[in-house]
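Q: Got a minute? One more chain.
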Amino acid sequence: MYSIPAIAPSNLRRPPDAFLDRPVGQKWLDALAREYPHERYTRQRSDDFSAKQRNLFASKIIEAKRDDLDIDELLQDELRPAEFYWTWRECVEPELESYFENHNAARRVEHWAEEIRPLWEDRAADADTSRVTDLFSSWDTCEILFQLTPTRCAEDNLIQSHRSWSEPSELAITSEFQYALNQIGYTVSEFRKLARNKHEAYSPLAATRRRRDPIVDWPKLSSTIENACSSMFGFYLFAIVPLTDLIKLDLTKPITFSPCWLATMNPFSGTFHDEPTNGPVTVSPADGFLLSGADVAYSPDEVCGLHRPAYHSRLTNAE
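A: Always. Here it is, folded:
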């Protein structure tokens, strides 16, 4: 329980600066700051974060990690600290008034409070170790996408159909499509055979090996393409993960989605379709680019109104 540190009656009769400027007054101020600490960032605030806000925080965290910036400094633009005013008005000032009333010095309290407040704030600020990232708990989740493209610009890497709709047999065979296929676990030759796609490649394709065993079987891959709902789209890995996972992540190391969903999405017009992968998926930094739902025009949840718990996952650095 909070309590005002004792002040000798003789000191209560002095001007406040005559007490506060002395060593005994300095010790009293230190004790007051210990009794009434101030936290600029408290966990309770996270109860009010919307899904859209959490996606924005995730985008800032990714930006900080990608550009080697301080996460807390970058997030301070979005999450202002709690004001000292509230701790003072709700906790310190009422009990200071009660203390002075109980010691027959009520008429002096206003003058003393004016002197004490800035000195308490300085000490409380020095003692406050809370950080912006302290606001986030495991239930504060965000939408995370891993863009399976060779360069960061999504527009330059869109996969296109020869028709106004998307189906496997009508997809344009391009280097961007070859890159995404290899990440998913298919070669162009395998895709052509399964999709009965006979379109010539736009330009000579480099000889490549598929990146891994298929992360989805053919019916699921075909489904993501057929339900892309756009003649242009990209392939993404998708999951809804805790912000705390993202904070711990090292983007220079392989990342594992467990579980994971493969999705087709047009990040500009707002289309999205997903299929669960065969198991956890690990990607290397060179495989693509990590994004949040705030980094696209419409997040998957905004497009589809997802049942979010069904997409809950964990994001970790692979051992």
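A: DSSP finds twelve helices and nine strands in the chain.
Q: Perfect, thanks.
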